[in-house]
Specification:
The structure is a single chain. The protein has helices spanning 6-30, 62-72, 108-116, 140-149, 175-181, 197-206, 227-245, 262-272, 278-290, and strands spanning 39-45, 74-80, 96-102, 122-125, 153-155, 187-189, 210-213, 251-252. By secondary structure, the chain is of the alpha/beta class. An eight-stranded parallel beta sheet has the order 1-2-3-4-5-6-7-8, sandwiched between helices.
Length: 315
Amino acid sequence: MPRNLIPVLMVLLYGLCLMDVRSQTQTTESGPTDDVVTVIDVHTHTPFVKSKNQQVDSSSTEEQYFREWREAGVVGAVAHTNASGGNFYDLKSRNVIYCGGVGDRVDVKRIEEGLKTHKYGCIKVFLGYTHRFAYSVEYEPIYRLAQKYDVPVVFHTGDTDSSRAKLKFADPLTVDEVAADHPKVNFVIAHCGNPWIESAAEVAYKNPNVYLECSGLLTGNLDQMPKEKVETFVIKPISWIFGYLEDPKKLMFGTDWPLVSMKPYLDAYKRAIPREYWQAVFHDNAMRVFKFPAGNVGPTSGITPLRLPAQTRQR
């Protein structure tokens, strides 16, 4: 080998070693470079209905449900029955926890039987669709059951898909009174009260027993929508909510499947949350609030407190 090539080869070898060291340091300090995260979707529905000609609607079959789980890295989910308990399937072995629905008729017997037998792991109250405020006396037996069986109560809040619904009953601000009167019960404000996200964020900020999930801010496949629309109506609102809460333990991930495609919604949601809090928002908070079995839905980790400048909130 010519002697004049030896210094050149030494420089090249040194550069390669330096690149390898830097790569290892970045992996150690920042974690994996990909965007993989273990996910629990806390807002889904399981209609699994066939059409009149017996052809299955492929967008809402059980096969499609779990196919979208795999695509999005979902390892567990919360599913909501309808207001009378319909659309329930025994999917416990696949890490699906059901919320028993409560509508116009407050069927205390059905709800308690479901909680007692572990058919239900939470309760869903359809505010707005039912013309009754969250603090209405008719719901008191439901809140007592939630405390007795130590399960969360989920409220539909905000916009509805029925012209017969009445929006004044779906205002998330009404959850404040219930949370204050029932401090031993955990409450979840679904859809972050959209479009009243500021009220929902304040109720969760003020009450230690209130949590948020931002499912269904847009419906459909977000990959097929203009990026500006997704940015305006999903990413920016979730980012604002997360910052206002000042506590990463308060927010969870939900889609509202099958109205929303899981993976595109997850991708948008991730853009709204600082990466260091992904584990909390997309997994650990749901584990804790809905009490998923620890051995079935992936690893948990400690949650680092969210540190924001003192001047971000005026008291």
